[in-house]
Design a protein that fits this description.
By secondary structure, this protein is mainly α. It is 63% helix and 0% strand. It contains six helices and no strands. The protein is globular, with a radius of gyration of 16 Å. It starts with 9 loop residues before the first helix and ends in an 11-residue tail after the last helix.
Length: 150
Amino acid sequence: GNLHAWAAKSDESARLWNVLCGVVRSSPTHAASNELVVAGKGAAIAMILALLRNRPGLISSVGEEDLSSVLALLGIENGRENCNDARRDCIALLGILCSESHPLAVNATIVDAFLTILAREDEEIGIISEILNSIMDMYSLDETDEGNHE
């Protein structure tokens, strides 16, 4: 067996990326906090997160609509386990994205979302931990790096 046949080509990764982002961006006709919708979007976020970890070149494929969709999913509060898993993955995804150079306006939007969540008195500890981890990723770059956000 040739193991190289298992490796996905970059165009296949890009197609998969586009499909997954389409799932996250989709607007169902019913409430966005519906448990099944959140589970589906959460699964797509988990796969996007795995793709970014293994195909970092896909970071450049993230658009404003994708970012807005991730932030919307992050803001859902229903306390169910699949919701918390999806939210943790959204935070990890944002941490990866923001560890690369990005505009100050994007930085402000994401940090505002993170601080809003951290200010909640009843937030799950796993969510708080992931936010703190992402903030460390965002701000721990070398100060000589132009992508460093102070």
